Amino acid sequence: MNKHGGYYGAKQDVIDFSVNINPLGVSKKLEQTIVDGIKQIHKYPEIDGKSTIEYIANHYNLKNDELVLGNGAIDLIYLFARALKPKKVLVIQPTFNEYKRAFKLIGSKIYEYILNTDKFELDVKELINYMHELKPDVVVICNPNNPTGTYHDICKMNEILEAVKEINSILFVDESFIEFSNKESLIKYVSSYPLFILRSMTKFFAVPGLRLGFGVSNKNIIAKMNEYKEPWSVNYLSLISVPVLLENQEYINKTLDWYKAEKEYVYDNLKELEAIKVYKSSTNFHLCKVKESNAELLKDKLLKKGIYIRTCEDFSGLDNTFFRLALKKHEDNEKLICALKETARGEIDEHNTCDRWS
């Protein structure tokens, strides 16, 4: 299994900055929907989630045969790999490590295009030249990217789409964090290009326990995936949650208002710390780099103060100086900034904390 965020130690009352889930939590409307829905769990859900597919298709102006549901976004990564069986896969790194594992399991040969760690900006011309040379069956890119927070703009993505079309490849784009970015999605291009888009409802709506995601592509790719898809892969409670989540504009607006202000606050404060480099982000987390130490040592020091961070040495192209910080509630983010400042001064005793902790 790959390493993922999440604190599982014995220490109590740890603030977990390794998990990039909306800290506003589950909406009250969804809570009530789940409570009411329990009365129906003695029944089988729709075998393929047809009603939910119809709803999502209508919401995003798509056709029903351009959608596939999954038991979380990860389920669809592995399903895509099993169904398409590409011989050569090019992964834009550093990025989420489940892509690499999924394609390796079905025997694909993995190639990597690693972005420069200065700004993690994409040199499209260089990438396209490499694509023409390699001729991969699938090109994988996460946009906005995990863990860098980078968003590659629509002009760059259009150039890549043209390139995959020329070399008879498929572009796999993970847009699991697109709701946070307020950036343009590629969904409208699925009928015109060999494109598969992965979407997760876990991050923005804070429902990782429901395991809910969907994929969008042309009808041929979706049909191929459905040939390999297990029946009843999405449970009843997840299916009835989709309309509640997508229609809850009050929750969506509240999240975006919180996110915009809180991201600026955290970034501005991290930028002031001389011992750390923080990268601009289009997501609900920040990638950071320790300048004169390593992230594992920093993690151990912060854990003494009740804070847990995600080190990033397991991402291709990153080393043990990188770590990722998810946005939390404002008071938790204040504690993080305070703890980082104390740690930079060498104050690592768990009882030696700022007044704001009391």
Brief account:
The chain has 358 residues and is α/β, with parallel strands linked by helices.
Description:
The chain is α/β, with parallel strands linked by helices and about 350 residues long. It is about 40% helix and about 15% strand. It has 13 helices and 13 strands. It has helices at about 30-35, 50-60, 75-85, 100-105, 125-135, 155-165, 180, 200-205, 220-230, 235-245, 250-270, 295-305, 330-345; strands spanning about 15, 65-70, 90-95, 110-115, 140, 170-175, 195-200, 215, 275-280, 285-290, 305-310, 310, 320-325. The strands form three sheets. The protein has a seven-stranded mixed sheet with strand order 2-8-7-6-5-3-4, sandwiched between helices. It has a four-stranded antiparallel sheet with strand order 9-10-13-12, covered by helices on one side. Helix 3 packs across helix 9 and helix 5 packs parallel to helix 6. It is globular, with a radius of gyration of 21 Å. The protein starts with 14 loop residues before the first strand and ends in a 14-residue tail after the last helix.
